[in-house]
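User: Predict the complex with heme C.
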Amino acid sequence: MSSYLYHEGKAHAHQIIRRTNDRSPWRMLQSFLVSAITLTAATVAFAADDAPTKRVTIDQSIDQATLHRYHFTDQGTRLIPAAWLDALVDESGKRVMDPEALRRLGFLFDDVKDDVRNPYGWPIGFTVSDPKTTGGIPIAGLSCAACHTGQVEYKGTAVRIEGGQSMIDLAGWAENILGAIAALARDPARIAQFRADAVKAGYPADRIDQDLEAVVEAIKSLGGGPSFYEIHTVAAGRGRYDAVQAIGNQVFGGDLGVPANSYPLDAPVNYPQLWDIWRLSWLQFNGFLPPNSTSRNIGEALGVRAQTHIVDRRTGELNPEPLRWQTSVQLDNIIWIENTLKNLKAPSWPADVLGPIDQAKAERGHELFVANCAHCHQIRELPSGLWDVIVVPLREVGTDPGQALHWAGRTYDASKLGLGKQANAHQLNVAINAIRRQLYVDYKTPADEQEPDVHFAAPCGYKARPLIGVWATPPFLHNGSVRTVFDLLSDTRPGRFRFGSREYDPVHLGYTEDDGPDSMVLETSIAGNHNTGHWWTDDTKRPGRIGRKLTDDEKYALIEYLKSANYDNYPRNKVAKEQALPCANDKNWPKRFSIRPAK
Ligand code: HEC
Ligand code: HEC
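Assistant: Here is the predicted structure with heme C placed in the model:
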């Protein structure tokens, strides 16, 4: 095993995390929580975002107060008691939730001081549960906005992109937390300090000794420090995560109590932009998911460690119903989030920060776009008002096959769910439907507000979504393997590039290559990181060719158009029905998969 994405000059070996079994610290922390009780009030210094020096806001049709609420709405993921997270220090004694450290991991901060929703002044996307839902102790979690809020920066001015691609290094953060927990377990002196800090941060003093002791004992019994079933054999780095595999591992491996069901995380993908998602006929990069938003968000929350009770953790046996399908997912909150996101509009180009648009050039780009791009990327409006997105077969688009191939091809022992020993990831819908129905019972949801059961597909391609606002979502392609739009429209692309900076390149549309201490290198010769496909070349034999070579003038015109693309000037067509998904009726396509993308 080796890691393919690394900090310059220093092997990023810590991205490889050993796989063991279900007794992860997370799990233990979760199970220990069951016995927790009331919280005393916690007040902690507020951390404001002060870098870069100035920030401008683009109107994306949601007011600031609603956005603020969205940034901190608990969807039901349950990581660790909030007071503990705030008190944790790393090996060197530094708080893992130190604002500066989090900023360096790519997290962004909200301006509003809010002792209720964000009592610890954490970055956007960190949540604290309502203690009524978690045995009296507020539990830290992650919400949508952690992964789906972006920012571009230019010469000292930051432009926040709500619903944009975040640049967080989530695996790096998780590793810090696990390292800190392991360091704590090893050292009695640290435990005394941690105890004091956690109580100061609000953890009930009359509970802390026994709760801590249980966790420390459990960690020690693991021997050799923290481990969990998320081995990143291709490091995700910033702005990426192999999210759907993580969900498969969590549900089939963790929640079913079958550790052998976990696969390496080796096809990391970008955090996609969230504007217009509710209208798309197919979601996720490979388009496996119809627009059943509650089901989608339940699946995602499970992947980010919502608490489940499918099996008894000690015996591995199925729990009786209804407990089996009860989870910590906050149904009312995910529905509120989803309704809120329906109002989110793509950001328009901030000319005052990034420079004016050359209208004549943009018009020429518009024509080129209609001629060369619209047949895949235009808005195809269905009678229902939804937008039918085309999923383009791998054979045609030729981009890295990992995400689509692993989803369709990897198998899991899901006998406990009655699905046999060779279940596919798309059969996750069985668990998700059961959990959703249970949520409706527990939340007393009226029948006419209930979403129908969802069926997942396993298409052999990637979706070509409408590109309004795409300028704001670098790097490009589903796996972030292309740094700029200019490179994406060219017939050669850099095989490796540094990334991590948010400094924007308004000429080529993308982030600049950053030289800072936190920059990483993306090496595209590695499976999972391939930057192939979507080629514009006159070499008609090249796999993944989708059009002729474009001149630099044409590329810059297309770029000018993409800067100006909006809901009024974007190509649109009415269509009577959805296009069929490629390979929708062919469950065996991964076995016959024979694309060998050119390097
Ligand atoms: C831990 C990070 C993380 C969190 C938290 C998260 N997402 Fe995502 N989300 C991702 C990643 C990564 C993908 C792409 C996965 C794929 O398709 O392979 C994704 C995909 C999506 C998509 C599909 C977009 C498209 O273009 O097809 C939607 C919609 C979405 N997320 C909405 C949400 C919502 C709403 C929440 C909160 C309820 C949420 N996400 C929480 C990381 C996250
Ligand atoms: C044959 C269909 C097809 C054509 C034609 C096409 N694209 Fe794409 N495009 C796709 C697909 C599919 C993806 C997603 C591929 C992936 O992520 O692996 C994509 C992705 C993109 C992305 C990256 C989106 C992101 O968020 O990362 C951009 C930008 C883009 N296309 C621009 C263009 C432009 C500009 C043209 C015309 C010059 C064009 N495309 C023509 C199918 C097409």
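The CA atoms of residues 431 and 561 lie 44 Å apart.
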